[in-house]
Amino acid sequence: MTASNIKFRLKKILVTFIAALMLLQTSAGAVFAATADGTDYVTADSNSRMPIPKAYVAIDEINNLRGFFKSDRQNYFKNPQDIDIDKNDNLYIADTGYNRIVIMSPEGETIAVYTEADGVSFAAPEGLFVDADGDIYIADTGNKRIVHLSNDGTFVESFFNPEDELVNGTVFNPSKLVVSPTGLLYVVRGENIMAIDGNNGFRGLFGQTNIGYSLTDVLVRMFASDSQKLFATRRTASSFINVDLGDNGLIYSTSMERMEGEIKVLNSIGNNIYRKYRTVGNSISNPIKDFINNKILKAVVAGNSFKFGEYFDDEGNYIEPVFADVTVDSNGIVSAVEQQGGKIYQYDQNGNMLCAFGGLGESVGTFSRPASIAVNSKGLIYVVDRLNSNIQVFEPTEFILTVQSATTAYENGDYDLSFELWNKVLSMDENYVLAHAGIANSYFKMGEYELAMEESKNANDRDIYTKAFDEYKYQILQDNFFLIILIIILILVAAYMFFKYSFRAAKKATWNFMSDKTKKMSIGQGLLFAYNVLVHPVDAMEAIRYNKKRLNMVVPWIILISAYVVRIMYIYIVHYPLASIELTDANVVFEAVKLFIIPISWIPASFMVTSISDGETKIKEIFFTTALGYVPYIIINLPLMFLSNVLSKSQASWYGVFSAASFIWMFIILFLSLWILNGYSLGKTIKSLLIIVFVIIMLWIVLLLCYVLVARLIQFISGIYDELMMSLM
């Protein structure tokens, strides 16, 4: 078992455990309810589904070789595994179970059946490709060869494992392939794609995913013996599954790649130029609420909001999507069939989902084990089902045709037409998010930046908003350059004066508190004392240690309440592209839990550890110093929320530095309080800190288990109550 396999199995165990806990939530069914009536949909965040008007309608089911009568048994398909369509919309099917290639008209009438080439019968052919001239290239898997037939079925040539040191000694089992306009054969070969020229010459391996750095591999190479190295498992990249060739000459592929994306578009040097997972960014915004609403799994799986396909089936069970095949039409619209859930997912030229339809089942429009997909010049989609041994034909509706035309018009630079078509889409479905994004993009291209910003909010697309805002901000800066510079200077001067005199007052209040041993800390003095922690944390901790009885315990409550008010203000004031949570998702209870989970955990954990390790602190001092840790949070986030309104997502890294600084500062204050207030050495402080962290984790686990048990108890009592009420009716 490879390291990557172990990693994914561990991940799957973790996700399954969390999913089991989530299924206890009453809100679990709502996430997947959108497909209960079999409607088509799009996914808003790779988890929640949004119904849309019907995108495709099943119009035909090809169960046999129409017009072909050889025997009752062979008049049907058996385990078909691939389909391709030529320029005349004729169908080419690899009927693997009967070792043959079947050619059909667009209406499904049998034109020809090929069972051999060069005097050798086909053996379980798993793939085929038809070029622009109608020539057929067949992956004759069982015979370990690729066969080239002319458009009339005449044998032309065969290809075998090419002679090269990189592939010598490996088994040649061609399964899926495409042929470029220049005559290069691209054959799926496990973790990469092999290129073969017209003379059966090896032209390279490409498309392999970077498996990254592994500390384990480095340690094995450094310390393992030669015999141990022989038994060490070599890490491999994710395997490719299928390929298709676009009219643009690019290779569209599906793979088991979970980090970059299962669907890839490879250029001539094998680089993926399609939408990638890791370019989207982390999607966790509200861990507590996301957990309860079944949204945290999307981050556990790969850490991003965007996904190809879905990681949950119709019943809400966790799955890892396996895209059996992909096809692309002349406009660059990508359709992929996923076999775990039996769904067809369609994406535009940039990887945005247009629709999802299908599912597992025996009825028309659903599949048992979809294996291949192809699209003809009229937009009809053909799906091969291995287990049902048939081909289903789907026709696009006016809705999805309008969507496709709109995205294509935008890609072609016809922004006025795209704008018109997206408005037509909204007249059919006003909640179709991609239409709002399309209109926002059109406004941006037209130079209507304010309108683009407004519409991008309707699409919840911060990337479009950022592009429009940056241009809008540049215009404002150009028109008001000297006024803006003057305002910045005045703000900087005011900030300098504020911090100069406020820190002076805070320092004075601290020394007054320390010098006058007869008086208890006043509220005003305590707030200034807390403010002084920002610049003199060591002095503040020393003052607390030797003046414990004179602390005013109203002060920490004021600090904590102020921090909570700042958090709520932040949600409403922070600039849209930098917001970590949607206003509609905000909940005052969850925000309080998020904000105060550290002190709630730190205070008892710290008291338990220090009380048994010669510590000097009591609950009172720990509570006071823990509240002081929120002073940096208040001081940094209060101006930052207003400053954010002149920043965009492109400046998120700078914004994030200041935001993270408040929590780093909080950690420093907590560490100093543990060190100084208890009179520990540095080594003992670090040891105690590690133990406290361990205790906090244990507390969280216990609380989680209690939560699960209470939820089960409530569920059990609720079930008994429902049964009792039913019996009394």
Descriptive notes:
- It is a single chain.
- The chain is α+β, with helices and mostly antiparallel strands and 729 residues long.
- A hairpin with a 5-residue loop joins β4 and β5.
- The radius of gyration is 32 Å and the shape is elongated.
What's the quick description here?
This protein is of the alpha+beta class.
What are the low-pLDDT stretches, counting only 5+ consecutive residues below 50?
A: 1-37, 279-304
Instruction: Look at the structure and give the mean pLDDT.
Output: 85
- Anisotropy-based shape: elongated
Span between termini: 58 Å
Summed up, the helix count is 20
Taking the sheet with the most strands, its summary is: 4 strands, antiparallel
Oligomer: single chain
Give, in spatial order, the strands making up the sheet with the most strands. Answer: 3-27-26-25
Helix content: 40-55%
Q: Beta-strand level of the residues, as a percent range?
A: 15-25%
Decide which structural class fits the backbone: alpha+beta
